[in-house]
Specification:
A two-stranded antiparallel ribbon has the order 1-2. The protein has a domain of about 110 residues. Strand 1 and strand 2 form a beta hairpin. The chain is about 80% helix and about 0% strand. The protein has two helices and two strands; from the N terminus they run E-E-H-H. The chain is mostly helical. It is rod-shaped, with a radius of gyration of 68 Å. It is a single-pass membrane protein. One of its GO terms (cellular component) is endomembrane system. Belongs to the ATPase B chain family.
């Protein structure tokens, strides 16, 4: 059997095949631990740089491209919406102008028809007025002749009633002078 190791000694970490204390703190194993630490770090570095980071970079690039494409598509749709709104406003303005033009044409046509109807009515009224005036003139002439006839008859009868003999020539001359003078 071997002699027990003095616990105050820092160089002896193993006694009878059993470790005393924490092996990570054993100075005899530092070089071995540092070697394997470096091997593990180099392995992790190569795994990260050759496999993991390129995949993460590809995912990030793909996301960035998708975001850029989505933003460009949104900008294009926004531009199309603005163009569509402008086209809608232009079409609306054109429709209003066309409606006003049609309305003005309809008003003008109605006014022309109204003017023609008024002119026709005025012509009919003038014709009827002329006919009425002609009839009135005939009636006046007939009435005047009738008045003259009645006046002659009445004058003759008055002369007879007063006991005289009527002179038809004098009565006609007196009645004609009176009728023409008034």
């Amino acid at each position: 059997m071997a002699d027990p190791v003095d616990p105050s000694s820092a160089s002896a970490c193993v006694v009878d095949g059993s470790a005393i204390g924490m092996p990570q703190l054993c100075a005899d194993w530092y070089l071995n631990q540092i070697f394997w630490l470096l091997v593990a770090l180099v392995a992790i570095y190569f795994v990260l740089t050759r496999i993991a980071l390129p995949r993460v970079g590809a995912v990030l690039a793909e996301r960035s491209g998708t975001i850029s494409n989505d933003l460009a598509a949104a900008e294009d749709l926004k531009r199309q919406a603005v163009d569509a709104e402008a086209a809608y406003e232009k079409a609306l303005a054109d429709a209003r102008a066309e409606a006003q033009r049609i309305s003005a044409e309809a008003r003008a046509a109605i006014q022309a028809d109204l003017n023609a109807a008024i002119a026709k009515a005025d012509a009919q009224i003038a014709e009827k007025t002329a006919e009425s005036e002609a009839q009135i003139a005939e009636i006046r002439a007939g009435a005047s002749a009738s008045v003259a006839e009645v006046a002659r008859d009445v004058a003759g009868e008055i002369v007879r009633a007063l006991g005289g003999k009527p002179d038809q020539g004098a009565i006609d001359a007196a009645v004609d002078t009176r009728v023409k003078g008034s």
